[in-house]
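hey can u check if this looks right to u? its 382 residues, i copy pasted from the old doc so theres a chance i mangled smth
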Amino acid sequence: MPTHHLFTSESVSEGHPDKVADRVSDEILDGFLRRAPQARVAIETLVTTDRCVVAGEVRGADVNIEELARRAIRDVGYAAPGFHWESLRFESHVHAQSAEIAQGVDRKDGEEGAGDQGIMFGFACRETPELMPAPLQYAHRILERFAARRKAGDEDLGPDGKSQLTVEYRDGKPVRAHTVVVSHQHSRRLSNAALRDIVRKELQEVLPEGWLGSDTRILVNPTGSFVHGGPAADSGLTGRKIIVDTYGGAAPHGGGAFSGKDPSKVDRSAAYAARHVAKNVVAAGLADRCLIQIAYAIGVAEPLAIYVDTQGTGKVPEARIVRAIRDSVPLTPRAIRERLGLARPIYARTSAYGHFGRPPSEDGGFSWERLDLADGLRAAVA
């Protein structure tokens, strides 16, 4: 890794069209899981001007998909001409899950096979208290601050927005904000200068002390204005912001999206498990950076392979970490689901501001962020 470099990550708000689609898909998933924890759900959503289209496959419950979709859009904040939760045209093209997929997941031996083949990655590093890459973690928090202002009554801010943070690294450690870009939907009466003042104030709250200096470049709505936003201005699709959802480009991505998928789909559950393990490897002091890859085959319970890369920061050989993971952390789909409590309606909240680096909640949300494996991994390595 170079001793002095710049690295950039972006985030998008919950009102970004792609994130609206993710939220609808996950809201529908939660609706099924409330009725039947073993439900099988794979939902894709398209949003565009005055229209929301849902498609996919389900099994195990009966829910009002349209009601859930409209509620999700309302909660995000869209109640204006062009895209209004109540008046938009809704279409559902949801059908029953394929019997061939079902027979691979629900095996006769009582185990659960992976819902698809694929490779999943987990990552953790010591750049932030949350053990996340700094550019992405702070890019998320910037937009969360804007969402909090809007929901607290600031009518000049719209739901749609994007942030981008370029961080300067020295000797492998993040030291300052080099460039910040914020593009945020706003009312006609809010000037770009006023929006810039809001951005600077929020940056002072979000960024670590000393990161925001006179040499930090701050770009706010570089086109000049951002009045028309959301699905009325641009279409959105489920699963189109997978790098925003994970590590902001600081780690590989297996390619599978998360939103709208129940935990039998290892695209989601195994990615959560990989983050859980990687975070605990770092928390256990076994490495300062940890990348984990897990591979699965459809219908097969045990992972085909586990790969660990500590990127030159390991305190013990990587082969010993792999053995410790295999010995102490079961990674079958069923074991992951039970250990992390994934058969619960905890997914709508994950649809914006990242699936990782969020505090675990009392109801089981973000359970993959717990530091409950560190002692076991440390002992297994020893």
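The chain has a mean pLDDT of 95.
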